[in-house]
Amino acid sequence: MLAERERLAGEIHDTIAQGFTSIVMLTQAVQAAIDTDPALASRQLAQVIQTARENLDEARALVAGLAPAMLASGTLAQALARLTDRAADELGITAAFEVNGSPRSLGTGTEVVLLRVCQEALSNVRKHAQARQAQVRLRYAEGRVCLEVADDGVGFDPESLNGGYGLRGMRARAVDIGGNFTLRSAPGAGTSISVEVLA
To answer: Which of 145, 122, 20 is nearest to 76 (CA)?
Structure first.
């Protein structure tokens, strides 16, 4: 029961809570632009609606115990590209996604972990990094796959962290599938997280 509770807590944190955070931030942006730039406010409102719809799909999938809605409608690479594009739109930064190697199916468990790690990492960019650029890379190599999310933001001292569910959750998810989680950051030097999995 405890393991299932932890799993559900992670799923809610990585999907529904992040979706609501995006909706709140986008709604605030709409409020700020509605009188001065109606066209921008209209585009941001469309993003609010899209994010709310995706969040509803994720909630339904979570309740039904299905694979994440983003993976049910396409490949892992397509899902990561959509996440990257959304982060760029929401934050007004340059965000790029790239795939290296030959994409292949990794199994639902591994793909869910990589998707959730990317969601959490981009959420951290949104909340903490003050970045101008972010990069998401998915690398397929012989017998392994690696996901990396990097930004050029303010960075931090990893030794000074008091915890925080997000980083612990990313590390735990990686360990659950036998992967390695690596965090690199320093004040003023941006942040990079990576997960490497045998696959």
So the answer is: 145
Number of H helices, E strands in the chain: 7, 5
* Dist. CA 56–CA 47, nearest whole Å: 14
What is the CATH classification number for the domain harbouring 29?
3.30.565.10
Q: Which of helix, strand or coil describes residue 96?
A: strand
Residue predicted with more confidence, 22 or 164: 22
Residue 63 scores a pLDDT above 90: no
d(CA 186, CA 3): 33
Task: Please count the structural domains in the chain.
Answer: 1
Burial classification of residue 190, based on how many CB atoms lie within 10 Å of its CB (0-12 exposed, 13-18 middle, 19 or more buried) = buried
Residue-wise pLDDT tens digits, 79-120: 999 999 999 988 889 999 999 999 999 988 899 899 999 999
What average pLDDT score do residues 158-180 get? 84
